[in-house]
Fold each of these.
Amino acid sequence: MKKYIFLWICGCWLSLNGLAQQIPVSTLFIEDQFLYNPAVAGTDDGFKVRMDNRFQWTGFTDAPITNQLSAYGPHKNKNIGYGGTIGYDATGPTGRFTLNGAFATNFALGGSLRLSTGINFGFIQYRVDGSQFELDSPDDPYAMDDPYAPPVPMSAFLPDAAAGVYLYNSNLYFGFSALQLFSNNIKFNGEDSKRNKLKPHFYGIAGYKFYFGDWMLEPAVLAKKVEAVPLQLDITARLMFREQFWGGANVRNTFESFDDLCFMVGYIHQKRLNIGIGYDFSSSAIRPYTNGTIELMIGYNFDDIRHRE
């Protein structure tokens, strides 16, 4: 049974035309908003590095694995920022590699409120190894002749771009971004198909930090929208003690269904080393076949290099 479920998932991923998002999700998005919005670059006064590893649907053979690395920070003397991301998303015989560089500029709106705008450019590489597909079936002797899964590795390179805005101060943040702006068609071996079209992804995020003595409460909402897919909301809240220990929960759903309940914990050592762990309980039809999703994040905050007057 797991074999056939896995093949169905791969089929949806390859078509890139089903009711699914093409960009990996992150339970710990609250710790690395730069992954979804290039305008976040330069909003801090020092550089940050984050590495995120997501092991989705543990228990499946060749289950999706996402690895992402980001680094970003400010210019020393100017109100600009820059950074980049590297990502690899693998599901059995399929893979998606991304490399992007970002630039952002920000300015004061009044008081402590600032606005940042950012763009990034890069590329996406998709790969498919048809030799790893198990298409033989006793009920269909012609299954191995499927023209959409030739038994050879294939890859395609595509340009990529994103843009975003980010309104913020020391407590408040609100951002909007659009990813995969070029909407390219994926061409394997020179063959073009409108079914393999990348879709723009739109993200909105809002959050606020409430301070109570040694405690900080941070509720946040991440909204995601893709063409032909219902609006998805990640509703998150975390509680932090003395800027060191924190824990929280995340509910991921649409207005039509409840998808996941997620829990997360983290530790920040001397405001530098940052470690986070997330765990997702799935409520969808695959729940009996998986042990859930695990996400691990490790990061480092460097010294401030920009000092605003």
Amino acid sequence: MKRIVLPVLAALTLAAYVPADAHARRGGKVVLHGDIVIEKDSRRTEDVLTDGSLRIDGTLAADAVSLGGPVTVNGLVTGDVSTMGGPVTINGRADDDVSSFGGPITVAGEVSGDVSSLGGPVLVSGHVEGDISSLGGNVKLTSGAVVDGDISTMGGLVEREDGAVHRGSVTSFDTRDIRRALLDVGRVARQGEKRLSPLLAGGLATAGLIFLFSLLFTGVILLLLPAVFFPLHTGRAAEAVRADFWRATGIGALITVAFFPAMLMLLVSILGIPLIPLALLLLVCAAALGLSGFSVVLQERFFEGIKRKGPASLLGQVVVGYALMAGLLIFGNIIPLIGGVLSFIGFMMMAFGAVVGLGAAWDTRMGNRPAPVPPAAAAQTAPAARPPAQEPPPQS
């Protein structure tokens, strides 16, 4: 999985460099315009980021990034070599990873790290010490190629000529296999007279239900943790949803929209990369806490609508609220005709609840402070102003 994700991470890193002017004012890297050439016998220790072509005949002791132009390494690069849309040709040596988003990669020299391509082919006639991964492109090893690591492709083929040396394993997944498998399943399903058809259909349905119940059970465990270990924080998150529902919705929507660009900004900083797992963990914890609070409010509205009394304990309220959303998903996969609509409604309720819950978690600072009181409610609960006290008349 890591080898498939590498090209995507490389593309995200490149995309984070695009707002160069604003990023440069904060001390980031500046996009250079025009073609860049590092002459032979010269050495550069600063990262190179350009929207033109890049040719390295000397030594680059840093990263090389091109936004659309070709990258040619005839000398030595000790950092990463990345391009978005342009071809990468390694005639010299690259001591770190080489990645391309949409462009072909040609290795005629030596690469000490991994080679990752998203959408472009990889041609190796030199030496690659790391792994090769390609998403949507073929990988070809010519007769003089040497690859020490593994080769992984998804949507492409691996071709190896006679004389090529490959010391690792090959993992190739052709997307055409999915189409053939679906056609085979459809053909078997149409053959009702065979005994295998009911067994196959029943097996697939059972496997799907087991997978669905596993996901829902995992969700129950995740939502019960805040209610069991942090009941006060969960109650405050629910109170934030009750106090100002649309405020929590708006804040949660802003967090959802801003989270992905924030991750891109962390990717461009060496100090920010270690913070990415912490940010993801914080997002999951906030969503779990907020969704637990949303479940409490949801079950309250449900029992108010049917004129019944709901559970008194916080844990029971969270379970019932989650069961209302999960029940739509379960029955949606069982009931014919309208089942798809029910599943969609249940999924949207969970997604919307997570967004509202993020806003509630922000408002209460993960439940560490009470929910803010809306101005209208504060005005209604504020004590009436007392008239100024009159001084007693002077005594004669």
Amino acid sequence: MKEQLFPVSISLSSYGATLVRERGQESFIELLAEAGARRIEVREELLTHEDPQRFATRAAAMGLECAYSSPLELWPAGQSRPDPQLAATLQHAEAFGARWLKVSLGYFSENCDLSALAGLLSASPVRLLVENDQTTQGGRIEPLLRFFDQVEQQQLPVKMTFDIGNWQWQDQSASSAARLLGRHVDYLHCKAVAQRADGKLVALPPSATDLELWERLLGQMSQGVTRAVEYPLQGDDLLAVTREQVHTLARLGRSMEETAHA
């Protein structure tokens, strides 16, 4: 019987901003494909001289799906309409061959006009993913829950990127967030988090304890959701390091799958 493997994405920020800017994001396509990743996550903040069309062609040729991550906040403070740059960012994501655009929530309130958002999204083939970030406005359960309740009511093509580690920046429970928001999740960002001596929180590869937690969180989400590495991938042999982490994340959730079919 063939082993059950789930799709894994690599956020290119995992290789460190300096290296990624030096090499260019296109240079990682072959490495990710050889490591067994299913998706490559382009980081807008790390772009230098990449050619979007060439990137899209090469990624497709290597069998990689593409997601495009932007630091854009969907709802600017005090504004009822989405960020004016959203339309251009959707177009830029499409140019890279991305099927998904990941942004942050921003300052969502009852005054925000979801019909304006619906109009923008209907003009683009790119699906929108809204992530819990590390801010007060976009990294807490309550505003995200209000937003996705509205999305669901209005049947908008918007899903959630659930970043496991980011909840800690706002002292929120990832388990509670998964229970309340899990049905909206279409993309899982994985990172362990530790506090340095100076008090700063930093992302780390997972321990066995972290992996156990991630298994439980996946139980609140749709079966086989794509999970992404967003923690440091470092070492002399980046292919071996990446392959090991792809191997680990691809097997997360297998026990639930086996139980369901027992």
Amino acid sequence: MILTIAAAVFVFGLLVLVHEFGHFITAKMTGMRVDEFAIGFGPKLISKKHGETVYSLRAIPLGGFNDIAGMDPDNNTASERGFCAKPVLSRMIVILAGATFNFILPIVLFFAIYSTLGMAKPATEPIIGGIIQNMSAEKAGLKEGDRILSVDGQKVTTWTEFTDKLKGVAAGQNVLLQYKRGEEISEVTLSPTFNEQEKRVLIGVQSSIVYESKTLAESFTLSIEHTKEITVYMLESIARLFKEPEQTENLAGPIGIVQMSGQVAERGFIPLLNFAALLSINLGIINLLPVPVLDGGHFVNLFIEAVRGKPLGSKAVAYTQRVGIALLLMLMLFATKNDLVRVFLK
């Protein structure tokens, strides 16, 4: 439990810090007055004023904000330094900066991993690198580090041979595995289960990982390519939500992310950094959706202002924001429902 909470605070804190810093630094660079830069919500735990800005850490580590003067045109206390008084291009830069920094963070994290450890790839040896919870391998007592020697009496020397032999096993059919743990050789019988998402039988094991060293130049190129690949995959996944409504069952909310953070943290700090990188890309994409109250919605309003030559009326903005809040609340409730089902009913 303590590890789960610590991992969730680390992941949420890192993502929010980077996102809000993007808004903060570009607001400062474009001459806007920032009254407060806060990580978290609720009561202040730590607060320090430096120059004209208050920097604070708050009690609930599930968000953060920048209090940029003049966000509300009817309450601009900063005159020409207020957000609303700046050119449209400056305001667009500030609005897009949060999501932009969320795409920069995974590049930095991947580069740090590749340049120090190398690039992870599956090992060829039939050694278990991870056990998936609540599946047959865990229930049978298999553990990380076990070397698979044979499947139903057929010897295996590589991970590919091991998985190929499992492909011929039907769901619910018993399979005998011989494995080596330390110096002791043991046998265990288990039954694979059919996974609807992957359309194949699984016993719940993952291969071990080895790292291939990379130069700094290779690490930088791979970091950009990997971030791009994940971004494209996530965009395709969002598109599938509209084509295949049943995919919405995979949506996760804060409870699910907290749970996943703890599970990933159990595997080590590097997997947790990878998880943070994935969530950062996801946060960047979600924030760019053209939904009122999200950064993408604010950008659309600014684009309309640039085309019209004047901002939208306050009534129109208020109406679209109410619609946006309603949509986000419905999405959050649905995702939370999925979380509760996964945690308590599965």
